[in-house]
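Can't paste images in this forum, so I'm doing it all in text. The chain is below; anyone willing to post the predicted structure tokens underneath?
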Amino acid sequence: MSAERRGALCVLGAALLWSAGGVGIKAVAAPPLTVACYRSAVAALALLAFLRPRGWRWTPAFAVAVVSYAACLTTFVVATKWTSAANAIFLQYSGVVWVLLLSPVVLREPLRRMDAAAIALAFAGMGLFFVGELDPHGRAGDRVALLSGVCFAALVLALRHERDRGAEAAVTYGNVLAAAVLWPFAESPSTLPVQSLVVLVLLGV
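Text version of the structure:
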């Protein structure tokens, strides 16, 4: 199997796992901040054990990447709990639009006409999520999902500014930061059903 095909299969696998994460988050019988805390805690332990990130430097862009990823993880869980998993996943991927929009300012990359057309179509599509929405809780979830997309864009822009150096470390320590910040707001694991604990471990790994 060629390296290109292996890479494509890895991307497909990552997309399927990320999408399945929305179903898993819905299945956990716990508030969103509790889910986000323990999901990130398990992920941090797994990443530290398997990746052992090295070769990163503490720079302003790296700090932005860590903080934005922690915020992205948290807002995605909140959005998934408050709105449909499909809405949360789709609106989080609006981060690609923000990357295209902000790249000329942050990375000094030119904005092509095709990019501008794609941005206009994406914003029109995202606007449909807020037309005719009667459930205030669901609408709040959509807005949080959009915020998650902005955080995801900040992560991508920060890593590209660093030429992708320290990407593994940013993801690892973003999970560490999210778990640490959310810990005071999380319910005790002893109060959660066993099934939910199993799902949380699977979500983190």
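The first helix runs from residue 3 to 27. The two ends are 26 Å apart (CA to CA).
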